[in-house]
Structures are given as structure tokens and as C-alpha cells.
Amino acid sequence: THANSNRTKPIQQAVCDRGYVGVKEVLGATIILPKKALKRDNRYQRDKKRKLCKRRAAIEPIIGHLKSDFRLSRNLLKGQVGDEINVLMAACAWNLSLFWKKVGLCMVRSRYFFYYTQ
């Protein structure tokens, strides 16, 4: 319900980990699990499922970094608006750090200054 409140259309598919084995549907969204391809699946269906599961596997480390590096594991702001603000601030910090790496700037966390790496 929280994820659907920020969208215009409801979520139709969710790619989950193996903790959802045995569950086919949650709140109207079909659950897709990473598993061995069926014999009746053609190449397109296999590649589509593989791509979805690889995409989820690529997002998991980013979520872990956001939780540990940008203090997303603990939210001190109140309500759903506070949740949204906290996530947006963490995402902005993540994007800024990627931008700084691309430009060649580096921020030292213990001191408050920037320096060129090149």
C-alpha cells in the first residue's frame, strides 16, 4: 500500500527473493522469483525473467549503501512525508557522490573540504 500510494497505476509485478517461495500474489501484484527456467519457456521469456532478476540483483547493493552510508536505515522524520523526505535526501546525496566521482572531486568525511583528485 505504501508503494502504491506514490504511483498512478498499481504495481503489477514484483521481483522478490526466495523468502517468498509459495506466495503467488501480494496485494494484486504477481510475485516473480529467481528460479530455473521452465522447459516450455521460449528464449524471449527466459531472457525477460533473467533480465528482471539481474536488475533486482543490481539494485540490492545500492540499497545497502544507502542504508549504511547515507543513514537510510533510521528515519527520525515523522509520517509518510518524513519517509519521502528522508529517501529523497539520501538519493540526492548518492547522486552527488556519483557526480563528484565523475567530475574528479572527492569529499573527505572527517574534514569539511574538497580537493581535486587529478
Describe this protein with a few key phrases.
single chain, 118 residues, alpha+beta, 3-stranded mixed sheet, two-stranded antiparallel sheet, 2 helices, 5 strands, 44% helix, extended
Task: Give a verbal description of the structure.
The chain is an alpha+beta fold. It has a domain at 76-118. The protein is 44% helix and 13% strand. It is built from two helices and five strands, in the order E-E-E-H-H-E-E. A three-stranded mixed beta sheet has the order 1-3-2, with helices on one face. A hairpin with a 2-residue loop joins strand 2 and strand 3 (29-32). The longest helix has 27 residues, at 43-69. It is extended and about 50 Å long. The termini are far apart. 0% of the residues are buried. The mean pLDDT is 78.
Quick structural gist:
By secondary structure, this protein is an alpha+beta fold. The chain has helices spanning 43-69, 79-103; strands at residues 13-15, 25-26, 29-32, 105-107, 114-116. The chain has a domain at 76-118.
